Amino acid sequence: MRASAVLGEVWRDTVGGASRAVWWAAVLAAAVSLVAWADVRSVVSILRDAAAFRAGGGAVQVLKADGLIDGRRCDALAQTAGVTAAGAIRPAPATRLWSLPSSPVTSLEATPGFIALLAQVGQSVDQDASLVGGVWLSSDLAQVLGLAPGQVMRTAAGPAVVAGVYSWPDDGRSRELGYAMVVPVPATTAFAQCWAQLWPGDPSLDALPRLSLDGAVDPAQLSSGQLNPSLGRAHQASARLAARPTAWAPWAAAGVGLVLGYAATRGRRLELAAALQARVPRAHLVWQHLLETGLWAGAGMVVAAAGLLWGAAAGNPDPGWAVWLIGARSVAAGGAAALAGAVIGAVRTRQKDLWRHFQER
Predict the structure, then answer these.
(1) What does the pLDDT look like over 173-229, one tens digit per residue?
(2) Is the model's pLDDT at 5 over the cut of 80?
(3) What is the DSSP secondary-structure string of 227-282?
(4) Which of 179, 215, 276, 345 sits 20 to 30 Å CA-CA off 303?
(5) Are 294 and 264 in contact (CB under 8 A)?
(6) How would DSSP label each residue in 69-130?
């Protein structure tokens, strides 16, 4: 039996419906999608918790040492592995606004690195990217003043352009930025605090902000801790991903695919036994059913993989492509196992069982 004959038989069985390709493709797509979807949504849930932990300030370590923080050293911490942003701040004289002459506004001077950190920790940041050096207002203060990024604020010291607005919710974090104006300044002088966002969390890096100290300092002059201790000591996203119950999803999908591939072939055992009786080489029959299974398994994999695109992106704070690849492992495992199941089913069928298969039918 030539290869062209095998391919012709595959085509006829698929088009004519003998292989029930549409049925098996639909069953495989549904079953594998269910398994892969559960794993993908589990990963997305962990990533959302991690994003909330970072946005809430749980990953930010704050070192307080009034007048002893080197601004340049603090900003430079952002270049260290495991530190996503770092910057220094210090209190500044309260700012008097023409619109609120009797209520001076709390002001803080910040290094450029702190402004970058604020964009990560200050939830719902709104900014005018074209403005460099403008002041930043908390959302509560901006709402009271009726100001938005790009507008000019009149103060007793002169006009100030609003470069951005950050949200500072009352969720357990330090409230010193809750109703304040942050003024960017060069990092060339001393500051009172050094903030560093450490991610992924590593307890061994908690003391890293101490590298920003300007020389030897009496420990009694220092204090440190999380910006928002209410979120817990650490998130441990990597450990949670490794320990998630759905981590075994590829194996479950492989089991499903193996059963379906075997069932699809064994369902045609009478046809296989009859072909063996007609002296069709077993190798040719194995190749025929392997190719037929490959057609419907491939179609089912495409459908399942396409459905995962939405599951990996919906509610995901990170790019969905990496999460999709996690789910795609289950889809691929299910499709590959279906091929193995088809081969096993074809190999287990024997010519001597023809009469028994005929009676069972």
Answers:
(1) 988 999 999 999 999 999 999 999 998 877 778 888 999 998 777 777 789 999 998
(2) no
(3) S-GGG-S---HHHHHHH-GGGGHHHHHHHHHHHHHHHHHHTTHHHHHHHHHTT--H
(4) 345
(5) no
(6) EEHHHHHHGGGSTTEEEEEEEEEEEEEEETTEEEEEEEEEEE-HHHHHHHHHHSEEEEE-TT
